[in-house]
């Protein structure tokens, strides 16, 4: 089930990446590259930081093909995308929580403790979007949007708590997915935001 | 011969990197850093992603010295550089194809399949320039220029096809170099471009 | 003693990172992330480039907690920070030299030569700040400020020279710290700058 979710998640993230590239008027090659970076960048950063080789897409090059195809399809159905915004918000929320879960599991399997596992979860969840924004020369969006990274953080700890309470893996995954998705959608609906820190050098 | 090409390529790329830093008015240290990142960054990203240690410049620190010296020389001959634009376009095209070839070979030697080898070729070819633009806070140029990343992509597959057909290595290298260089120069001459994807949120 | 210095340095760097995030009006999560990247990013880039696993903060997750707490504290004492500028300039200078020393030592212990050790020293010293500026979408400051990267470079070679002369480690560290700190503070006081390279495409 997690694999299915992962495939849906990387497809959805690839399509949001492709739209970002389109907003900058990039050529098709750039669109494909930004899509792959958005979809697979978070997991790659995690794996490089904890030295977990080979990377997912090196082991499964078919994921690269999937994200590239998703990017090219996006180019052709772009006029439709405007009507699918709600669907993509849900898919994006699902992807965020699924990435976070997979990041936590990967770190735990590699023998890391809870703190590093939660950090790996958040990195997997949000770094794809951060890299997308750096490549497109934007200030990373995730620091300005409604609870996004925070959802990833809370989902990571929810999952780790379930593990700590020795719930079976499936229950832990389902509880985290449901809770994380709900929190994210409520945050979008009611525009919940983290407090912002605004600092000016001159008073 | 490929080593000779590699040395020419990193020198030329270091010099284009130094000019980019100069356009932003950086100090000499920034010029050297941007030059090294431009010349050696593509190979470094590739090696980190496939876990191929030690990195080229860690094993051969003399390449770092070469790119640093090239950067410093560029500062002094900058007024000349304007008259050498055509030469640098050719050297840059040569570097693009040579980097791509080396990236493919490195991946094949490390035991990766054709798809990952082609991706490694493209990463080696274009990521130096992408990193240069990120460090200089520009939108990566390669997504806006005439067939650039695409030349790298086609050169990679041309080389891999030659390998698949079991041509001797030298022939495969020569065919790819010649074909890639020709395609790039034709693309510059006739301003061939990839189609662009322009997306606006509001219709 | 070097550990004490390291802890002071990452705390000070985390706080300067948090202020940068505040200048961009990021939310609390972004502030913590930028603080961690600023404080621990230089060492992480070094370790990834030379394949030195596990990374410092993966082995000692308590450093992540320290930098996160420092970032959150910064949010609350921000109005005070304006009066502590001189203190932070000194702490930042201390951090720069301490990071450089630690980077050199790590590379030497991993068996690398003098040139790579000096490069690792500079990367550890300056890349945290470079990553901070890339995440905040600025042109990296270090290429525009008074001797900053150059201090790191000279400190690295000062330390390596002491090692070469077979001075005891403590003496080498003390000489480098004192010399580097002095040079940086003099550079700030008298606005010493590296010459800049300004290049325009049109004459």
Task: Write up this protein.
Chains A, B, C: Belongs to the UPF0126 family. Three copies of one chain form a homotrimer. Chain A has 203 residues and is mainly alpha-helical. The first copy, chain A, has one domain. Chain A has eight helices and no strands. In chain A, helix 1 (2-23) crosses helix 2 (28-50) and helix 1 crosses helix 4. The model of chain A has no long low-confidence stretch (mean pLDDT 90). At the B-C interface, helix 1, helix 2 and helix 4 of B face helix 2, helix 6 and helix 7 of C.
How are the SSEs placed, and which strands pair?
Three copies of one chain form a homotrimer.
Chain A: H1 2-23, H2 28-50, H3 56-59, H4 61-81, H5 85-109, H6 114-135, H7 149-164, H8 169-189
Helix pairs in contact in A: 1-2, 1-4, 1-5, 2-4, 2-6, 5-6, 5-7, 5-8, 6-7, 7-8
What class would the helix/strand composition of chain A place it in?
Answer: mainly alpha
User: Which two chains share the most extensive interface?
Assistant: A-B, 33 and 31 residues
Q: Profile the largest sheet of chain A.
A: none
Number of strands of chain A: 0
* First and last CA, distance of chain A: 54 Å
SSE ordering of chain A: HHHHHHHH
Low-confidence segments of chain A, ≥5 residues, pLDDT <50? none
Query: What best-fitting shape of chain A do the alpha-carbon axes yield?
Result: globular
How confident overall, as mean pLDDT of chain A? 90
Rg of chain A: 17 Å
The DSSP helix count of chain A reads 8
Oligomer: homotrimer
Please give a quick description of this structure:
In chain A, 76% of the residues lie in helices and 0% in strands. Chain A has 8 helices and no strands. In chain A, helix 1 (2-23) crosses helix 2 (28-50) and helix 5 packs across helix 6 (114-135).
